[in-house]
Amino acid sequence: MSADAPLVLGIESSCDETGIGLVRGTELLANAVASSMQEHVRFGGVIPEIASRAHLESLVPTLREALATADVTLAEVDAIAVTTGPGLAGALMVGVAGAKALALATGKPLYAVNHLVAHVGVGVLEGGELPDSLAALLVSGGHTEILRVGSLSSDVELLGSTIDDAAGEAYDKVARLLGLPYPGGPVIDKLAAQGNPKAIRFPRGLSLGKFMGTAEAPGPHRYDFSFSGLKTAVARYVEDCHARGVQVPVADVAASFQEAVVDVITKKAVLACQEHGLKNLLLGGGVAANSRLRELLTARCQSAGIGLRIPRPGLCTDNGAMIAALGAQLVQAGVAPTGTDFGTDTGMPPSVISLPPAA
Amino acid sequence: MRLLVIDTSSVVSVALIQAPDDSSSGDAQILSDLVGTDTHRHAEDLTPAVRSALAEAGWDAPDVILAGDGPGPFTGLRVGLATAQTLAFAWGIPVYGLCSLDGLAHQAAPLAVAAGASELLAVLDARRKELYWARYSSRGERLDGPHVGGVETLPMRAETLPVNGTSLPDGVVLAGAGVAARSEQLAAHPLPVLPGTESLAVSAAHLGLAWLEQGRPQDAPRARYLRESDAVVPGSMAGVDVKAGQRG
C-alpha cells in the first residue's frame, strides 16, 4: 500500500444516490453516481423502499463504471470505505453488504465511515488538505448541521443541527404547498430570483433570546435549526390567500421562504465560527448548490473574516468519492479499519468518524 | 465445481457444495451448511458467515454462486443479493438465482413422502400477517407460485371449501417457518402441517441441491419482492404538472 497516496474505493447508499468513487490520496479518479431521484418525483419526497430497490439494481453497474473510469482494477485498490450511517436503514444495508463482499473477495481493509464527516472530507479533493481551524456547514434534504472539524480522522464535534426537518426537506414540503415539483430546492431557488424576499416576513426558527442565550451563557439551541414552524407559516399564508380568494404570489412566497431559511442558516454558521474561534468554513450537502445560500454565506463570511470553501456541486451532493476521500484520510492517519463485523447505524453521530474494529 | 450458496429470505444461510464438474447432480458433497436463527441481522452476519465457511473448507473462492432470490422480507433479501452479486463481480465468476422456497421444498419433500403426503405447500413468513407460499409435488417440483398473501389465499382442498377455485388432491401438507410465524391465522386452516417443519427456514445447502437437481438453471438473480413498494402519491401532489412546475 502506498502510505502517502492510498487508492481507496468508496461506496455511498444512504439515501437515493448509489455512488461509487475512487480516490488516490487527495486526487479524484472516478465519481460514478446512479440516482433514483426521478422515481421519487411523483411522491414529492424520497420513498425508502423505492430507493433501496434502485440501490440493488445499480450497485454492480456503478461499481463497474467507476473502475473503468479510473482505469484501475480491484486488485490495485488499497482500501474500501462505505457509508454506514446516518441514513435510511434499508438503503444503507445495500451499500454495506456490497462493501463487505468486496472486502471479503479482495482481502482489502474496510472502513465503515460517517456520511456527514465524508461531506467534509470531500473538500480535500479540491485544493488538497483542509485548513486548520475549520467548521463545516452541511445542508441537504436529510441534514442541516454545523460541525467543528479539529481533524478529519480523529476530532469532529457537532455544534448544532436541526431539531425537526432538514432544510432541503423544508424546500420539498414548501414546493408541494405551492404546487411545485420535487425536488423543491432548484425550483424554489429559480422562482425566488423573480420574487421579493422581503414581501412576507416568515419566522427564523430558534432565533429568539430564550433559545439563543449569549456567547457566555448559550441557550439550549444557540446553533440549532428548526424549519417545521417555517413550513407551517408558509402553509398558513397559502391557506389565507385561498380563503381570501386572492392568487398566491408564488415568486414572493418562494423568495421570502428562501430568505428565511438562508438567513438563519448563514447567521448561525458564522456565529458558531466566531464563538469557537474557527477561521474557515466548508459548505457541503445538496443545498450547497442554492444560489442565495452561496451568495449570503459568501458575503457574511467575508465580513466576518472567515475563509469559505465550497466544493463543486457534483461533490456536494451525495457521492462515493467523498466516502473514498475520507477513507484515504483514515488510511493515511493510520486509523484501524473496521473489518466486516458491523451493522448500519441510522443515527450515527458525527463524532464517530469511522467504526472501530469489533472487539 | 465449487458452489457457494447464499440465502437470506428468512434467516442467514450459507452453504458450500463440491459438485461434479459435469451437469450431473450425483455425488454432490456438502462441505459447509450454516442456517442462522436471527431474521434481523443479515447485514451484520452474512459476510462473516461466508468468510468462515470458506476458511473452514480451505477455499480461496468458489467457481459459481447461487443466491436464493426470495420471496422474503425486502431488506434481508437485498443483503443476500447485493452480497452475492458483488462477490461474483469481484471474483469474476457467474451468479445465478433460484426461488428460495425451492430450497424449503427440497428439504421437506422427503419428509412429506414419508408421511404419506402427495403435495406440499412451502410457506415462509411474509410479515403483515401474510405468507410467502408455493405449491410443490412430492418430488419437490414447483407446481404453483411463488405468491404472497394472507392465510385465506392459500389453496385448500376442494371438499373443505368448494367455492375455492383451486382443486387440490388429498394429502397436501403445509411445511416451513411460515407455519410457526402465522400459527394464529393458520389455526382454522384445514390443511395439516407436516410435523417437525413448523419452524423450518430455508437451508442454503438444500437450495443448492435443488439447483443441481433442476439441471443448474442459469437465471440471473432478481429479487422476488411480490409486493409493490407501498408508496402512495400524496393528495397534494396529484395536481402537480412535473414538467411545467405549476399546478395543472
Please tag this protein with its features.
heterodimer, A: alpha/beta, Nucleotidyltransferase, domain 5, 2 domains, five-stranded mixed beta sheet, 10 strands, B: 248 residues, 6 helices, globular, disordered C terminus
CATH architecture of the largest domain in chain B: 2-Layer Sandwich
Q: And the CATH topology of the largest domain in chain B?
A: Nucleotidyltransferase, domain 5
CATH class of the largest domain in chain B: Alpha Beta
The secondary structure category of chain A is alpha/beta
Q: Of all protein chain pairs, which has the greatest interface, and how many residues does each chain bring to it?
A: A-B, 42 and 42 residues
Largest sheet of chain A, if any?
A: 5 strands, mixed
Stretches of chain B where pLDDT is under 50 for at least 5 consecutive residues are: 158-165, 238-248
Averaged pLDDT of chain A, please?
96
The oligomeric state is: heterodimer
The CATH topology name of the largest domain in chain A reads Nucleotidyltransferase, domain 5
Succession of helices and strands of chain B: EEEHEHEHEEEEHHHEE
CATH top level assignment of the largest domain in chain A = Alpha Beta
For the record, the CATH architecture of the largest domain in chain A stands as: 2-Layer Sandwich
Q: Strands of the largest sheet of chain A, in order across it?
A: 3-2-1-4-5
Which structural class should the secondary elements of chain B be placed in? alpha/beta
Q: How far apart, in Å, are the first and last alpha carbons of chain B?
A: 60 Å
Cα Rg of chain B: 20 Å
Strand arrangement in the largest pleated sheet of chain B:
3-2-1-4-5
Strand percentage of chain B lies at 15-25%
GO molecular function, one term (chain B): transferase activity
GO cellular component, one term (chain B): cytosol
Protein name (chain B): tRNA (Adenosine(37)-N6)-threonylcarbamoyltransferase complex dimerization subunit type 1 TsaB
InterPro entries (chain B): ATPase_NBD (IPR043129), Gcp-like_dom (IPR000905), T6A_TsaB (IPR022496)
